């Protein structure tokens, strides 16, 4: 489904080239639950941004469903990203000036997908499933961390993506709340067959994943 071949992401620092990720060869199949593990600065977020088409590699190719994404125009690429991937971040990344419902509906504005239910209907059915329906008109900063992360997951799911990319989704939550979020991601993988890629540096978070990818100094050392 997603294939990275000889992928590098390089930056020029003080005239020298620094590779945040190097020579990544990775195939991600539909329905997988993958944990990306590694110490701080090892390139986990960089790799996640590449997989999620938020960033272009400086070398190598990324193919999504057999298509080389470097061949897509900017608008084709944003459309693919918008419909194919949902992102969940450690800091939730919700917009505090918008209500919960408005936050959740944001990705639907640019989507050209056809659904039988309206965006609002989809939002309410997901909010009900995740126990945040009564928060629809609240503002994110009035919610607990766990509730905010559930809003972020709802927003990530609104366009029915094939992949959820979660970068340290439990990093700002207490253990119990974090565990509930992980259970929810596990359910989405098992029941809804959504591919989940989870970045973490906690080994006990990674036990949920069927496949673990260890990264160190930008390179995959174990997968
Ligand atoms: N835009 C950039 N310009 C230069 N260097 C960068 C840039 N983005 C990331 N890096 C460097 O690339 C390396 C990998 O960063 P990355 O954010 O991917 O690490 P990480 O594994 O996610 O770390 P953490 O666990 O702390 O989130 C780091 O050394 C970082 O400083
Ligand atoms: Mg990171």
Structural overview:
By secondary structure, this protein is of the alpha/beta class. It has helices at 44-51, 74-84, 100-109, 119-129, 145-157, 175-190, 203-206; strands at residues 2-13, 16-28, 33-37, 59-64, 67-68, 85-89, 163-167, 195-200, 211-216, 219-222. A hairpin with a 2-residue loop joins strand 1 (2-13) and strand 2 (16-28). Helix 3 crosses helix 4 (119-129). The longest helix has 16 residues, at 175-190. The chain is globular, with a radius of gyration of 17 Å. Bound molecules: adenosine-5'-triphosphate and magnesium ion. Residues 44-45, 167 line the site of magnesium ion.
Keywords:
single chain, globular, binds magnesium ion, 29% strand, Rossmann fold, six-stranded mixed sheet, alpha/beta, binds adenosine-5'-triphosphate, 7 helices
């Amino acid at each position: 489904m997603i294939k990275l071949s000889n992928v590098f992401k390089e930056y020029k620092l003080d005239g020298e080239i620094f590779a945040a990720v190097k020579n990544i060869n990775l195939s991600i199949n539909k329905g997988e639950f993958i944990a990306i593990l590694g110490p701080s600065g090892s390139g986990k977020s960089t790799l996640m941004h590449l997989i999620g088409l938020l960033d272009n590699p400086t070398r190598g190719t990324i193919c999504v469903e057999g298509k080389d994404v470097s061949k897509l125009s900017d608008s084709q690429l944003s459309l693919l990203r918008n419909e194919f991937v949902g992102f969940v971040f450690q800091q939730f990344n919700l917009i505090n000036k918008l209500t919960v419902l408005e936050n959740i509906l944001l990705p639907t504005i640019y989507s050209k997908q056809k659904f039988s239910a309206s965006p609002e209907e989809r939002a309410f059915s997901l909010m009900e499933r995740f126990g945040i329906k009564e928060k629809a008109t609240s503002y994110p900063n009035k919610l607990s961390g766990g509730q905010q992360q559930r809003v972020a997951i709802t927003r990530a799911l609104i366009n029915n993506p094939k992949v959820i990319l979660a970068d340290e989704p439990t990093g700002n939550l207490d253990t119990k709340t974090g565990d509930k979020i992980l259970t929810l991601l596990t359910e989405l993988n098992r029941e809804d067959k959504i591919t989940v890629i989870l970045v973490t540096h906690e080994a006990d978070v990674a036990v949920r994943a069927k496949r673990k990818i260890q990264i160190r100094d930008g390179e995959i050392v174990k997968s």
